[in-house]
């Protein structure tokens, strides 16, 4: 990753929808995002020092993992997470088998995940720095999974609809499947279904389901 970073757009295909999804322009959804992000960042501030110490003791290196992802209509942004893998995890990915199908990468026993990282993932604490992305308007509390640039460049025309809303910290996939859904086409179907069913009330429902799934540690690895 270069030291300088410029926001850019991944070009949408001509088949992509030009209509504005209601969630993108909803002031109530944005208000919910800001309120949730402020609460989430407050919790993150309390947790960052003990998490940072644990990460350094277990596997010295950066505290945060940063990666360029694609958001609404291909607009790129830098996502933030607490680091849950070894420092050179991206360079070692080719050594790990992919247990998922399609344009996602998953491995239940990924050897790159540290001991502290396993705990962070099971409890979803690794996701908490993304509240900063929500506050900045790059993400939403609820939306679709934010893909990498490499994934998006391999999209088929029907995949692009999932980028018609902001990416979310959670969504149908995270709340109802999390890492148990291993087929990218199933994720796309869930993302498109979310767009059809969207309302602020539905966002609140998915947030509640996400909390329940995290407390049960359901489907996380």
Descriptive keywords:
two-stranded parallel ribbon; 43% helix; mainly alpha; 221 residues; globular; 9 helices; 9% strand
What does this structure look like?
There is one protein chain. The chain has 221 residues and is mainly alpha-helical. The protein has one domain (23-216). 43% of the residues lie in helices and 9% in strands. The chain has nine helices and four strands; from the N terminus they run H-H-E-E-H-H-H-E-H-E-H-H-H. The chain has helices spanning 22-25, 27-58, 89-92, 115-123, 130-135, 149-152, 172-176, 184-197, 200-216; strands at 64-70, 76-82, 140-142, 168-170. The protein has a two-stranded antiparallel ribbon. Strands 3-4 form a two-stranded parallel sheet. Strand 1 and strand 2 form a beta hairpin. It is globular and about 50 Å long. Mean pLDDT is 88; it is low at 1-6.
**Estimated share of beta-strand residues:** 5-15%
Strand order of the largest sheet: 1-2
Secondary-structure element string: HHEEHHHEHEHHH
Which runs of at least 5 residues are low in confidence (pLDDT < 50)? 1-6
Radius of gyration: 17 Å
> What is the overall number of helices?
9
Strand element count: 4
Layout of SSEs?
Layout: H1 22-25, H2 27-58, E1 64-70, E2 76-82, H3 89-92, H4 115-123, H5 130-135, E3 140-142, H6 149-152, E4 168-170, H7 172-176, H8 184-197, H9 200-216
Parallel strand pairs: 3-4
Antiparallel strand pairs: 1-2
Summarize the structure.
The protein has helices spanning 22-25, 27-58, 89-92, 115-123, 130-135, 149-152, 172-176, 184-197, 200-216; strands spanning 64-70, 76-82, 140-142, 168-170.
């Amino acid at each position: 990753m270069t030291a300088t970073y410029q926001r850019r757009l991944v070009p949408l295909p001509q088949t992509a929808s030009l209509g504005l999804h209601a969630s993108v322009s909803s002031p109530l959804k944005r208000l919910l995002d800001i309120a949730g992000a402020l609460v989430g960042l407050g919790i993150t501030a309390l947790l960052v020092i003990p998490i940072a110490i644990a990460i350094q003791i277990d596997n010295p290196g950066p505290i945060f993992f940063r990666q360029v992802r694609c958001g609404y209509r291909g607009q790129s942004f830098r996502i933030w997470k607490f680091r849950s893998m070894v420092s050179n995890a991206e360079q070692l990915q080719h050594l790990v088998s992919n247990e998922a199908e399609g344009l996602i990468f998953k491995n239940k026993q990924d050897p790159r995940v540290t001991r502290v990282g396993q705990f962070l993932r099971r409890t979803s604490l690794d996701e908490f720095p993304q509240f900063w992305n929500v506050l900045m308007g790059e993400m939403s509390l609820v939306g679709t999974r934010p893909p990498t640039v490499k994934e998006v460049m391999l999209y088929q025309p029907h995949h692009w609809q999932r980028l018609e809303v902001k990416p979310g910290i959670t969504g149908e996939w995270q709340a109802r499947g999390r890492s148990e859904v291993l087929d990218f086409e199933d994720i796309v179907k869930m993302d498109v279904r979310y767009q059809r069913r969207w309302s602020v009330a539905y966002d609140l429902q998915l947030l509640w389901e996400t909390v329940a799934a995290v407390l049960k540690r359901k489907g996380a690895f």
